[in-house]
Amino acid sequence: MRMIQLLGFHKESPDLELSPAEAEQRRRIFWTAFLLDTTSSIKAKQHPALELDNIQVHLPDENLLRGVRDLNSTHAVDNIKIFKLRVQLAIIESRVHRHLLNRTYDRVQGMSTINEISQLRDELTAWRDAVPPAVRPEYHLHPNPASLSSSVTALHLAYYDCVGMIRAAAELYNSEEIRISNIAQHLPSPAMDRLGFFTDNCARAARATLAMTPCLETLPLVEIW
């Protein structure tokens, strides 16, 4: 990631006079590095090498690379670009991860941070709803291992992991320093409902993750929650 930054891949470069396809390949190199950095940072509980605020690159554009399929895609998902979906999810993961790392600061912020976490939960739900049904993560529908490619399986597990991360971020306020009961009177009812929803969704995500273990034979260990 340091080399990516030194080469300027984290910014759009109109001065390079690249063709649209070349510019898209350049973006995909950056976003691939971003995915690796985000995943390793989350697993190691460390800050990422590059903060989201410093990224000035467009999201991957499926239309600029016609004929280029995602690795390990099956016939059912030939026309669905998993890579962009994974990048969008990683951006949400990175923002949730930042709350988990900045515990002291977030506790001082109190209600403002709870609202931000609730917003991230809403964004994650919106992301899931926008995923095409053929590859959408579901809590109650457990796929046949033979029906999923490794890239789709990794996408599902990353989603379930993000649900757990949001639950962990919300749980920070059920501590000795700040208990949710102490600030409940300052929160609107919908916000409290969402905090309770975190727990329910986390349990469902855990069960869905366990149900997908038959799909993990060829999946890199870093993706296993």
Automatic annotation (TrEMBL):
Coiled coil: none annotated. The keyword Nucleus applies. It comes from the Eukaryota. Residues 1-129 form the Xylanolytic transcriptional activator regulatory domain. GO terms for biological process: DNA-templated transcription. InterPro entries: AtrR-like, XnlR_reg_dom. Keywords: DNA-binding, Nucleus, Transcription, Transcription regulation. It is found in: Nucleus. GO terms for molecular function: DNA binding; DNA-binding transcription factor activity; zinc ion binding. GO terms for cellular component: nucleus. The keyword Transcription regulation applies. This is Xylanolytic transcriptional activator regulatory domain-containing protein. It comes from Eremomyces bilateralis CBS 781.70.
